[in-house]
Every structure is written in structure tokens, then in C-alpha cells.
Write a structure and sequence with these properties.
Blueprint: E1 3-8, E2 24-36, E3 45-62, H1 68-74, E4 79-82, E5 87-88, E6 95-102, E7 117-118, H2 119-143, E8 145-146, E9 152-153, H3 169-181
Helix pairs in contact: 2-3
């Protein structure tokens, strides 16, 4: 039976943040991740942007009950884009459709001190990539994501990301070392 699937490339790669069934690793050609902001959210988050020279890793998962409307509501800051022709996966012909969620062009702007990236969000994303793709895959995440010049708020002590997770010491070191290689220094402020 054919079913509808979506491609997750950020926090959805961390299986502990959701209970989507039939999730499995996949890759999407022609996309790059970017840190962006919208007026729909108070902080910056990941979106996918077209890039013919790039391929990103992620997970595909079954759309619960093939109900796109419910998933669209969860992903309200994004537009749903057909990506079946760009996603490589191991499901064979069982996927009737595969979408990727991306902020519509012209509806996003650069992160700022008023709309920073949350370190607690990045931690969750990298924890997922480490578990699914290992250290090499987590490094590919950093390499295939744009916008590292954006302000990064260190909210680890009081996480603002609603699906935050506790990372191991090794996972924290991996994230911190990768950010240091990118010359990204998280800032702090009274939360």
C-alpha cells in the first residue's frame, strides 16, 4: 500500500522528539539547510533552500494517517514542497508522495539578536545526526548548513526549545568543537 511521507532534516532526525512511524534514513539532492527567521516564530530555525550542488541527510517518516493537513499545522511556518524526485530512500515504491517543508521565498530573513538560533535546538538536531549518521554525518550537517554567522543563544542552562533533550558529555563536546571550528561563539543573556 502506498503512503505519504515527509523528509525531515533538523530536529525530526532525532527520533526521541517524535513518534512518527516508519522513519528511516534518507537523503535529499538539490537542497541545503539554512538558519532563517520568520515573523511566525520568535527564534531562528532550520529551513531547506534549493541548492543544485548540495545533498542533505535526514529521515523520511510516514505522514500520520496520510493526513497532510495535521502535519501542515504542526509545520505552520513552512510550505510543503513535493520532493519525491529528489529523495533517495530504502522504501521502494511504497511511498506515494514525499514532501519537504521549507519556508517560502520572501517570507524569511536573517537571524538576529532578537531572533537567535537556540543552542538547545542545535543540540537536539546534532544528537539525532550523531545517532543516525555518526560523527561523519553530523559533520556533514555542519558543512551542508548555511548561516553560521547568525547569533547563537546559549540556553543550555534553561532550554527554551520545547523538545530539548539532555546530551551526553561526548555529544556536548562534539557540538562545542564543531562550533569552535566554525568560529561560532554562543552568547548568553538573562533568560
Amino acid at each position: 500500500m502506498k503512503q505519504a511521507f515527509f523528509f525531515g532534516y533538523g530536529s525530526l532526525v532525532n527520533r526521541s522528539t517524535h513518534d512518527f512511524s516508519q522513519a528511516q534514513t534518507a537523503s535529499a539532492t538539490g537542497w541545503r539547510r539554512a538558519w532563517r527567521s520568520t515573523r511566525l516564530r520568535p527564534v531562528s530555525f532550520l529551513t531547506a533552500v534549493p541548492d543544485s550542488s548540495c545533498e542533505i541527510d535526514g529521515l523520511i517518516a510516514h505522514v500520520p494517517n496520510d493526513d497532510w493537513a495535521a502535519l501542515d499545522e504542526r509545520e505552520h511556518a513552512y510550505a510543503r514542497v513535493d520532493a519525491a524526485h529528489q529523495v533517495t530512500h530504502g522504501l521502494g515504491n511504497s511511498a506515494s508522495s514525499i514532501a519537504i517543508y521549507a519556508i517560502e521565498s520572501g517570507h524569511h530573513f536573517d537571524p538576529s539578536l532578537d531572533h537567535p538560533i537556540l543552542l538547545s535546538y542545535l543540540d537536539v538536531v546534532i544528537q539525532g545526526y550523531l545517532k543516525e549518521f555518526g560523527e561523519a554525518g553530523a559533520m556533514r550537517f555542519f558543512e551542508t548548513t548555511s548561516g553560521w554567522e547568525a547569533p547563537l543563544l546559549n540556553d543550555r542552562a534553561k532550554p527554551l526549545y520545547p523538545r530539548h533533550k539532555t546530551l551526553t558529555a561526548d555529544e556536548l563536546t562534539f557540538v562545542d568543537d564543531a562550533l569552535a571550528r566554525l568560529a561560532v561563539t554562543p552568547f548568553t543573556r538573562e533568560l
